[in-house]
Design brief:
The protein is an alpha/beta fold and 338 residues long. It is built from 11 helices and 13 strands. The protein has 2 domains: 167 residues, Glycogen Phosphorylase B (Rossmann fold); 154 residues, Glycogen Phosphorylase B (Rossmann fold, 3-Layer(aba) Sandwich).
């Protein structure tokens, strides 16, 4: 009987689910993989041979915790992999993990707010309740990086470079733009409440860069945008790889996907309870002090960056997609050793 890995990937956006699928699609070649998620986007995408326990986003907090506990206590699994939150998003894992000492437990350590780590005494909890901690490309200055059971990989990506379609195909069939036209892609992959912001930004870019093709990549079309500017496609890295410049938040997937395919990202750090997007934004062109500036000041800053990138860039369509290392493949090997 094949072993089973269970991945805890709660979080309302794309990030946790995409990271879980990046690992799960590779791991599922040799075993069963199950994913617990409450992402509203799970309805819209292929699960890549992983079984998904989908907790509806509209259930209340206590019911979400109850459903997670029910799955963990009644489902068979040979390894538990927890993404980002050692005690669970609602602390629902705090009293369960000590009872699972007969099962290997792995924490995926993405960057999180150090105040949260200190307030909940998470370092000692991680040391006592996890066999291995894997850092998926986020550096060595994270809160748990000094623990003895830490391993590092390159960032996890949902596609290897040889799986991506060529740029001309993506532009003509998915983005619906001329292969030779410079293309600006707005990534609206965060909270649903931020869709209006990115919709307005898309229209503004369309007006101010009339010689470029402008598209917004989002699960839902913003009401501000005409349908011809909207692209709904998963995985988003295929669209990113075919763009000349990307504008989006500084979430995990957006930053590392752009870095992997070497497409410049103009990053707008967005406010998050646990994730420190402002810190990650240093890896890209950064719209600084975004929360404090007026909307007109923000637009001028974005315009200057995009103009500079487009003026200096050779059209993306002139080069093949570069090769890169997908850390999810190494992570599978590290978890197998546990």
């Amino acid at each position: 009987m094949a072993e089973t890995w269970l991945i805890y990937a709660l979080g309302g956006g794309w990030g946790h689910l995409t990271r879980a699928l990046s690992l799960g699609r590779i791991a599922s070649r040799q075993r069963k993989v199950k994913i617990i998620t409450n992402s509203p986007y799970a309805y819209k995408i292929d699960h890549d041979d992983c079984f998904v326990y989908l907790i509806p986003e509209n259930v209340n907090f206590s019911e979400t915790c109850l459903q997670v506990r029910k799955i963990l206590c009644n489902c068979h699994y040979d390894c538990l992999i927890v993404d980002t939150f050692p005690r669970g998003l609602g602390a629902e894992l705090a009293d369960i993990l000590p009872k699972l000492d007969y099962i290997p437990r792995v924490l995926i350590h993405r960057d999180i707010n150090s105040r949260y780590v200190s307030a909940k005494k998470l370092k000692s909890f991680v040391k006592e309740n996890f066999n291995r901690v894997i850092v998926p490309g986020e550096g060595k200055d994270l809160p748990f990086c000094d623990l003895p059971m830490v391993d590092h990989t390159a960032p996890w990506l949902i596609r290897n470079h040889w799986e991506l379609p060529d740029k001309a195909t993506t532009r003509s069939h998915i983005l619906r733009v001329s292969p030779s036209k410079k293309t600006i892609l707005v990534c609206a992959s965060g909270k649903a409440s931020e869709l209006t912001l990115f919709g307005e930004l898309t229209l503004w870019l369309k007006r101010n860069f009339p010689d470029c093709a402008v598209r917004i990549l989002a699960a839902t079309c913003p009401k501000e945008c005409p349908k011809e500017l909207w692209v709904s496609h998963h995985p988003g890295i295929e669209c990113i790889a075919a763009a000349d410049v990307v504008i989006g938040g500084a979430g995990y997937n957006t930053v590392y996907e752009c870095a992997a395919v070497r497409v410049p990202l103009v990053a707008i750090p967005l406010e998050r309870l646990y994730d420190r997007q402002e810190k990650r934004a240093y890896k890209s062109y950064w719209v600084q002090n975004y929360q404090d500036a007026t909307f007109d000041e923000q637009l001028l800053n974005i315009y200057a960056m995009v103009r500079r990138i487009l003026d200096e860039a050779i059209p993306a369509n002139s080069f093949p997609i570069p090769s890169y290392i997908n850390g999810a493949m190494e992570a599978v090997r590290q978890i197998e050793q546990v």
